[in-house]
From TrEMBL, chains A, B:
Its cofactor is Mg(2+); Mn(2+). The record marks Y135, K186 as: Important for catalysis. InterPro entries: ICDH/IPMDH (IPR050501), IsoCit/isopropylmalate_DH_CS (IPR019818), IsoPropMal-DH-like_dom (IPR024084), LeuB_actb (IPR023698). GO terms for molecular function: 3-isopropylmalate dehydrogenase activity; magnesium ion binding; NAD binding. Keywords: Amino-acid biosynthesis, Branched-chain amino acid biosynthesis, Cytoplasm, Leucine biosynthesis, Magnesium, Manganese, Metal-binding, NAD, Oxidoreductase. It comes from the Bacteria. GO terms for biological process: L-leucine biosynthetic process. Its main location: cytoplasm. This is 3-isopropylmalate dehydrogenase. Homodimer. Its EC number is 1.1.1.85.
Amino acid sequence: MSRSIDLAVIPGDGIGQEVVAQGLKVLNAVLPQDVKLETKEYDLGAQRWHRTGETLPDAELEALKGHDAILLGAIGDPSVPSGVLERGLLLKLRFAFDHFINLRPSKLFPNTATPLAGRPDIDFVVVREGTEGPYTGNGGSLRTGTPAEVATEVSVNTAYGVERVVRDAFERAAARPRKKLTLVHKNNVLVYAGHLWKNTFDKVAAEYPQVSTDYLHVDAATIFFVTQPERFDVIVTDNLFGDILTDLAAAVTGGIGLAASGNINPTGAFPSMFEPVHGSAPDIAGQGKADPTATVLSVALLLRHLGYEAEAVRIEDAVSADLAERDGATTRTTDEIGDALAVRV
Amino acid sequence: MSRSIDLAVIPGDGIGQEVVAQGLKVLNAVLPQDVKLETKEYDLGAQRWHRTGETLPDAELEALKGHDAILLGAIGDPSVPSGVLERGLLLKLRFAFDHFINLRPSKLFPNTATPLAGRPDIDFVVVREGTEGPYTGNGGSLRTGTPAEVATEVSVNTAYGVERVVRDAFERAAARPRKKLTLVHKNNVLVYAGHLWKNTFDKVAAEYPQVSTDYLHVDAATIFFVTQPERFDVIVTDNLFGDILTDLAAAVTGGIGLAASGNINPTGAFPSMFEPVHGSAPDIAGQGKADPTATVLSVALLLRHLGYEAEAVRIEDAVSADLAERDGATTRTTDEIGDALAVRV
Ligand SMILES: CC(C)[C@H](C(=O)O)[C@@H](O)C(=O)O
Ligand SMILES: CC(C)[C@H](C(=O)O)[C@@H](O)C(=O)O
């Protein structure tokens, strides 16, 4: 394990700046004295685009490559046309750095609100594929804007891409107490991609006899997310299904304010990127109202990825303890929550 | 309005036969004396496929065309490879009869269980596109079964197909008290299809100034389904997103046992098909345990489609009243529920 961390920070838009500041505060607090943390901020997002028309210039992409990891706050603003920053910045990073593991843990922490009656015991992790499926940007439109328009979106799935994420998910499942892995797809309709996913899953499963497996269609999976979420341990799924399921997972585990994520390249060939699942929430930006917990939990994922397991666990325990003691009546500012977590770790 | 109904009935597999019997019982009970009901049963589904290898032969497709409407129970059995009956029968019917409106109402009836705390007031309808998107079967696989396999699924979207479903949804929204229509897509990632959907939606919206409109990404929509479902009135969406959202909607409104659906061709060029959203549930088949309510509600949609509005409302009111009086302690058989509803209408 390296005793220094060279971190790129992309605060981004809206509440991004505020939550990232708390993430860094907790990171500084948890790191052992002898670990040298260096951070470099990158000015990317809506303001930059308005100013220069740039989303992610090559020089900055190149520079980002040199860091050990990236911490991102939030990107997006209603003033930017839909798709510009998503494709030009967020997805560009995932693709350029081959972030084929999009890791999204879901846990119902003590004392947090869930819309579900009966407070089921939720503790699962979604391993979402990050570089293929309908996210590749393949497709196009013909006779655009006319009554004869045809627009296509192509979901691209390769044995190479599917196998590596499926293997990663089996590894993660094997390392957890319950050792259970569920594949989610829609192989009764999307038969070509579905066969590839299912066959790959079954093939790799043979190498992990200790992991129990399960298959669900994506529509059925959403039902279980609300009626029986405790049945899930690790879920592996396609890029788009993973996008949908992880927002739903965040909702049932107390909201998007607590959902962390990692865009991971486990080979280490490129830096991995960690970010809260939530967006830039321009309506509450700059008011100290944003909950930085999802960012702090993303820092835990970052530390785990870089080999600082004990520190990651300390952050997660601090969040648990903090949530257990939060009382609904007092609202704390972004800064106060960050301080409380920094003290606890 | 014709004073006769020539109905094709496809009981199908598992609990299909049982629930369809109750649907027909209620249909017979609700129809005015002078309406002549003729039914013809079609033997299609898993057993037929095992016996003959056929899913939907041309002759039967041709014969089905001659009916006023189709009532379907449930199709599918674990003994049939995934995709065979879905593509070869269910989707074949939707495509052959150009069922471009897949109508799925969601209502939280009195006294029914919802996994959501606080019992929100849920009463919305999803207008799911039924003939395009990733369901077209376009796509394929190359070097199948090798480490170099590439499998694609193509989502096909046309101005023709999108505009007709969007118009239908605006009509339905305009006819409801709240007059609100939400478009659900993922236009920040699926930019080609997303633009076509959004532009068409905005264009048609200009003709319906009385309808208030809204746009949500599909991932965000799943959050609102569990945190704020009362915000929805009518939703219009793509075939795959509609598939996912309507299972989730069924789950939050008391389960798939109550969810009805219509595969509708509003032009009348082909018969429309009505079916419960649930599957064939082979584990409880033949035991009189299936709840036929979703099928009975599908019969109401069928009647409404054929112009029997008063009769449709009578069925829906009967279901409401029946559910309001159900007590959790006594379980009734499929037959008993059917009888109770037949008496009420
Ligand atoms: C902003 C968008 C491109 C992104 C996605 O669809 O992956 C987001 O929804 C997420 O889940 O990280
Ligand atoms: C069985 C399957 C083909 C079907 C679909 O995906 O449309 C089902 O899930 C539904 O929603 O009617």
